Protein backbone atom coordinates (compact mmCIF):
# COMPACT_ATOMS: atom_id res chain seq x y z
CA UNK A 1 0.00 0.00 0.00
CA UNK A 2 2.76 2.47 0.93
CA UNK A 3 4.70 1.62 -2.23
CA UNK A 4 1.63 2.29 -4.39
CA UNK A 5 1.02 5.59 -2.61
CA UNK A 6 4.67 6.57 -3.13
CA UNK A 7 4.42 5.78 -6.85
CA UNK A 8 1.21 7.78 -7.18
CA UNK A 9 2.80 10.77 -5.44
CA UNK A 10 5.83 10.55 -7.74
CA UNK A 11 3.57 10.48 -10.80
CA UNK A 12 1.74 13.56 -9.49
CA UNK A 13 5.05 15.32 -8.80
CA UNK A 14 6.36 14.47 -12.28
CA UNK A 15 3.17 15.80 -13.87
CA UNK A 16 3.45 19.02 -11.85
CA UNK A 17 7.10 19.49 -12.88
CA UNK A 18 6.15 19.17 -16.54
CA UNK A 19 3.21 21.56 -16.22
CA UNK A 20 5.33 24.08 -14.30
CA UNK A 21 7.82 24.05 -17.19
CA UNK A 22 5.13 24.40 -19.87
CA UNK A 23 5.39 20.80 -21.09
CA UNK A 24 2.13 18.99 -21.89
CA UNK A 25 2.12 15.86 -19.69
CA UNK A 26 1.55 12.70 -21.76
CA UNK A 27 1.84 9.19 -20.34
CA UNK A 28 5.32 8.74 -21.85
CA UNK A 29 6.56 12.18 -20.75
CA UNK A 30 5.35 11.61 -17.19
CA UNK A 31 7.05 8.19 -17.11
CA UNK A 32 10.35 9.64 -18.36
CA UNK A 33 10.26 12.56 -15.90
CA UNK A 34 9.32 10.19 -13.07
CA UNK A 35 12.30 8.03 -14.03
CA UNK A 36 14.66 11.01 -13.92
CA UNK A 37 13.28 12.09 -10.55
CA UNK A 38 13.69 8.60 -9.07
CA UNK A 39 17.07 7.73 -10.61
CA UNK A 40 19.79 10.23 -9.76
CA UNK A 41 22.27 8.09 -11.69
CA UNK A 42 22.53 10.41 -14.70
CA UNK A 43 21.09 7.86 -17.14
CA UNK A 44 21.61 7.78 -20.89
CA UNK A 45 18.82 7.55 -23.48
CA UNK A 46 19.52 3.81 -23.82
CA UNK A 47 19.33 3.23 -20.06
CA UNK A 48 16.00 5.03 -19.76
CA UNK A 49 14.61 3.26 -22.83
CA UNK A 50 15.67 -0.19 -21.59
CA UNK A 51 14.36 0.36 -18.07
CA UNK A 52 10.97 1.75 -19.17
CA UNK A 53 10.30 -0.66 -22.05
CA UNK A 54 8.71 -3.30 -19.79
CA UNK A 55 6.07 -0.85 -18.54
CA UNK A 56 5.73 1.09 -21.82
CA UNK A 57 6.05 -1.48 -24.63
CA UNK A 58 5.25 1.09 -27.34
CA UNK A 59 8.13 3.34 -26.26
CA UNK A 60 10.92 3.97 -28.77
CA UNK A 61 14.46 5.27 -28.34
CA UNK A 62 13.53 8.18 -30.59
CA UNK A 63 10.65 9.10 -28.28
CA UNK A 64 12.96 9.00 -25.25
CA UNK A 65 15.56 11.15 -27.05
CA UNK A 66 13.00 13.69 -28.31
CA UNK A 67 11.30 13.85 -24.90
CA UNK A 68 14.61 14.50 -23.13
CA UNK A 69 15.41 17.23 -25.67
CA UNK A 70 12.01 18.79 -24.98
CA UNK A 71 12.67 18.64 -21.22
CA UNK A 72 16.06 20.29 -21.68
CA UNK A 73 14.61 23.03 -23.90
CA UNK A 74 12.00 23.71 -21.18
CA UNK A 75 14.66 23.64 -18.40
CA UNK A 76 12.93 20.68 -16.75
CA UNK A 77 15.99 18.47 -17.27
CA UNK A 78 19.66 18.96 -18.01
CA UNK A 79 21.96 17.19 -20.46
CA UNK A 80 25.36 16.37 -19.00
CA UNK A 81 28.32 15.89 -21.31
CA UNK A 82 30.97 14.98 -18.73
CA UNK A 83 31.42 11.56 -20.37
CA UNK A 84 32.72 11.88 -23.95
CA UNK A 85 30.99 8.65 -25.00
CA UNK A 86 27.47 9.38 -23.73
CA UNK A 87 25.14 12.26 -23.07
CA UNK A 88 23.55 11.74 -19.68
CA UNK A 89 20.44 13.38 -18.30
CA UNK A 90 19.18 14.56 -14.94
CA UNK A 91 16.19 16.23 -13.42
CA UNK A 92 17.12 19.83 -12.62
CA UNK A 93 17.11 20.02 -8.85
CA UNK A 94 19.45 22.83 -7.96
CA UNK A 95 23.07 23.82 -8.35
CA UNK A 96 25.66 21.10 -8.11
CA UNK A 97 28.79 19.92 -9.85
CA UNK A 98 29.48 16.45 -11.25
CA UNK A 99 32.23 13.91 -10.63
CA UNK A 100 33.03 11.22 -13.23
CA UNK A 101 34.83 8.13 -11.97
CA UNK A 102 37.32 6.99 -14.59
CA UNK A 103 37.27 3.41 -13.26
CA UNK A 104 33.56 2.55 -12.97
CA UNK A 105 32.13 5.28 -15.24
CA UNK A 106 29.53 6.46 -12.73
CA UNK A 107 28.66 10.13 -12.45
CA UNK A 108 28.01 11.56 -8.99
CA UNK A 109 26.46 14.86 -7.88
CA UNK A 110 28.81 17.07 -5.89
CA UNK A 111 27.27 19.83 -3.78
CA UNK A 112 28.46 23.36 -4.42
CA UNK A 113 27.25 26.40 -2.58
CA UNK A 114 25.30 29.18 -4.30
CA UNK A 115 28.09 31.52 -3.19
CA UNK A 116 30.75 29.45 -4.97
CA UNK A 117 28.58 29.13 -8.05
CA UNK A 118 28.08 32.90 -8.23
CA UNK A 119 31.81 33.56 -7.71
CA UNK A 120 33.07 31.21 -10.44
CA UNK A 121 32.51 33.80 -13.12
CA UNK A 122 31.58 37.43 -12.86
CA UNK A 123 31.61 39.79 -15.80
CA UNK A 124 29.28 42.76 -16.10
CA UNK A 125 29.02 42.21 -19.87
CA UNK A 126 27.26 38.83 -19.46
CA UNK A 127 24.37 37.32 -17.55
CA UNK A 128 25.22 33.77 -16.50
CA UNK A 129 22.27 31.39 -16.84
CA UNK A 130 24.02 28.12 -16.14
CA UNK A 131 27.32 26.96 -14.68
CA UNK A 132 28.71 23.48 -15.36
CA UNK A 133 31.51 22.32 -13.12
CA UNK A 134 32.89 18.82 -13.61
CA UNK A 135 35.50 16.82 -11.75
CA UNK A 136 37.13 13.67 -13.10
CA UNK A 137 38.98 11.09 -11.04
CA UNK A 138 38.45 7.90 -9.05
CA UNK A 139 35.50 7.53 -6.70
CA UNK A 140 36.05 6.39 -3.11
CA UNK A 141 34.54 2.95 -3.77
CA UNK A 142 36.88 2.22 -6.70
CA UNK A 143 39.83 3.72 -4.83
CA UNK A 144 39.10 1.49 -1.83
CA UNK A 145 38.76 -1.60 -4.06
CA UNK A 146 42.09 -0.95 -5.78
CA UNK A 147 43.87 -0.48 -2.44
CA UNK A 148 42.26 -3.62 -0.96
CA UNK A 149 43.02 -5.82 -3.99
CA UNK A 150 46.08 -8.06 -3.68
CA UNK A 151 48.97 -7.03 -5.94
CA UNK A 152 49.05 -8.87 -9.25
CA UNK A 153 51.84 -11.35 -9.97
CA UNK A 154 53.84 -8.89 -12.08
CA UNK A 155 54.08 -6.54 -9.12
CA UNK A 156 55.06 -9.39 -6.75
CA UNK A 157 58.10 -10.36 -8.90
CA UNK A 158 59.61 -6.89 -8.67
Can you offer a commentary on this structure?
With 158 residues, the chain is α+β, with helices and mostly antiparallel strands. Strands 4-3-5 form a 3-stranded mixed sheet, with no helix packed on it. Strand 1 and strand 2 form a beta hairpin. Helix 1 crosses helix 2 and helix 3 crosses helix 4. It is globular, with a radius of gyration of 19 Å. The mean pLDDT is 86.
Comma- or semicolon-separated keywords:
alpha+beta; three-stranded mixed sheet; two-stranded antiparallel ribbon; 7 helices; 5 strands
Order of strands, widest sheet: 4-3-5
The largest sheet, given as strand count, sense and whether it forms a barrel, is: 3 strands, mixed
Quick one: overall form? globular
How much helical structure, as a percent, in the residues?
40-55%
Give the termini separation. 61 Å
Unreliable stretches covering 5 or more consecutive residues: none
Amount of beta strand: 5-15%
Task: Count every helix, treating DSSP H or I runs of 4 or more residues as helices.
Answer: 7
From the helix content, strand content and strand pairing, which structural class follows? alpha+beta
Taken in chain order, the helices and strands follow as: HHHHEEEEHEHH
* Count of beta strands: 5
pLDDT averaged residue by residue: 86
Radius of gyration: 19 Å
